[in-house]
Amino acid sequence: MKSRGEPAPARTEKGIAVAALLLAAGRSQRMGLCKQLLQLADRPAIVHCLDTLVAAGLGEIVVVVSPTGDEVAGAVSRYPVVVAVNETDSCDMADSVRTGLSHLASGATGILVALADHPLVRPATVAALVGLHGEEPDAILIPVHDGAKGHPTLFPATILQNLREVATLRDVIARHRDKVRLVPVADEGVIMDMDVWEDYLAVAERLNSPG
Q: How far is CA 47 from the centre of its chain?
């Protein structure tokens, strides 16, 4: 699908560039309906995710949808993003990342892999990961909240290319354990997903809570 304008990755002062892949091709089988389009406050969950990436300064964003994801693509149509279709039957995360990588137009040094079912991640968290990439461009940056690993993860582009040789992102991380840096964050949104209806209700309640 077409993009708008000329997207460019977020660049640090050292010229390090970060692009983002927003994975939205999941079929929401446990939820039973399209969780990417679930309303949270005044907009769909995926729009919250995109607003976070844009607010964090990411200029090149590829949104990966499923072959039946026309409504998801429509929800993000006003954003200057590339929409890519994961044509595989499973639409799993690794295949979505492979799809997204093939649609990146820039020479990004880092790739932020974000999930469309984590709408509470704060822009400051994403910006902090981008900033750390500028300091440690060879590190795999994984946010951690209260001892639990979360999302999004920022990969060096050279390392993420290994996904063409292995089955999953976990395999990529396992190959490069020495490069993994766990980044403590105060942002509970990195571990709050929406796999089942109760998760969605918890996210909606947290979004509407003052402070």
A: 12
120, 192 Cβ separation under 8 angstroms: yes
The separation between CA 159 and the C-alpha centre of its own chain, rounded to angstroms, equals 17
Q: Which of 106, 168, 162, 112 is nearest to 140 (CA)?
A: 112
What does DSSP assign to residue 40? E
Beta bridge partners of 155: 111
Q: What is the pLDDT of residues 93-141, one digit of tens each?
A: 899 999 999 999 878 999 999 999 999 999 999 999 999 999 999 999 9
- Which alpha helices (H) appear in 45-116, and where do they start and end? 45-55, 70-75, 93-101
Alpha-carbon torsion 111, 28, 37, 42, what sign? negative
**What residues form DSSP beta bridges with 64?**
23, 84
The span from the CA of 53 to the CA of 65, in Å, is 17
Q: What is the pLDDT of residues 163-187, one digit of tens each?
A: 888 888 999 999 999 999 999 999 9
